[in-house]
Write a structure and sequence with these properties.
Layout lengths: L9 H16 L4 H18 L3 H14 L3 H17 L3 H14 L4 H20 L3 H21 L5 H9 L8
Helix pairs in contact: 2-3, 3-4, 4-5, 5-6, 6-7
């Protein structure tokens, strides 16, 4: 039984039924359909905080999925899990891989900026001013890119860029 069907949530059940219907009528390969099932099950596990299970499903989806755009979202979600677990270096690797396949992924750019900002704060707490400035500059660079792609999003980042004088800085 697919993972989402274990949920009692009406929206999840509805999504599963619609996704299954679409999968049956779309002219896609068996591998693409299986990749989508793994991706869907990964999203369900991730939403329930079952990160190990989600990663297993995402890695299976990556084995089967050939479409670069779809792969970018799988990689992005893997990055989310590593970020949630505090494994920022791994998260950055997956966010960058996602961006290599899909450069129009503002949420990945934002999450990279958040990690750099966090690292900047940690360095500032340790009085490591050069490292802190470097991390904040990197955060600014990625937030500017995210805001360029999604101008109505990331209002807090826009405010931070304005107050720190990084809004119009050159990359």
């Amino acid at each position: 039984m697919p993972r989402l069907q274990k949920n009692d949530n009406f929206i999840d059940k509805t999504f599963t039924v619609i996704a299954d219907i679409i999968l049956k009528i779309l002219p896609t390969s068996k591998e693409e359909k299986q990749a989508f099932c793994y991706y869907r099950d990964g999203m369900s596990a991730q939403s329930e905080g079952e990160y190990a299970e989600a990663l297993e499903n995402y890695y299976e989806a990556l084995v089967l999925e050939e479409d670069p755009y779809d792969r970018s979202y799988v990689l992005y979600n893997i990055g989310l899990i590593y970020s949630s677990n505090g494994e920022h270096t791994k998260a950055l690797e997956y966010y960058h891989q996602a961006l290599e396949l899909n450069s129009r992924l503002p949420q990945a750019l934002n999450n990279i900026a958040v990690i750099y900002h966090y690292q900047g704060l940690k360095a500032a707490d340790k009085q490591q001013n050069i490292i802190s400035k470097s991390m904040f500059d990197k955060a600014g660079e990625y937030w500017r890119q995210a805001i360029y792609l999604a101008p109505n999003n990331y209002i807090e980042a826009q405010n931070w860029l304005k107050t720190t004088g990084r809004l119009n800085a050159k990359s």
